[in-house]
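ugh ok so i messed up the first submission bc i forgot one of the chains. this is the corrected input, ALL of the components this time, i swear. 100 residues overall. if the numbers dont match what u have on ur side tell me asap before i send this to the collaborators (the ones from the other lab, u know who)
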Amino acid sequence: MSKSTMDEFNLRIYSILDALPTGETISYGELAKQSGFKGYARQVGQLLKQLPKDSALPWFRVINSKNEISFPIDSDAYLRQKEHLEKEGWRVVGKKVKPS
DNA sequence: AGTATGGCGACGA
DNA sequence: ATCGTCGCCATAC
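and heres the new structure output, hopefully the right one now
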């Protein structure tokens, strides 16, 4: 993947994520697919992990295809994501993100 | 150049 | 529901 292609990829991911409605979630793979880069789920993860902690983008609305938070249960990141999701009406049991 | 490591995903057992 | 195994692809050594 060339550098310019990557820039394009990043922009699309940001754009889609920015437009993702409150109360909704999306998977890494789905994001990748919608951006036109099917199979780039891991790259989505890589991109999101470099976002500043106070980013305006709803990074926490991105979970894996099994509807789980992709962080170790005891990590800080896990907790932060859980808080956010619950604040938007989800119930988080372990790693599972369930509708309330 | 080869290997390990991820905020992943699909499928089979 | 859970655990392996593979496939996937950029990054870091």
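quick check: Helices of chain A lie at 3-18, 28-34, 41-49, 76-87. that seems consistent at least. The beta strands of chain A are 26-27, 62-63, 90-93, 96-99.
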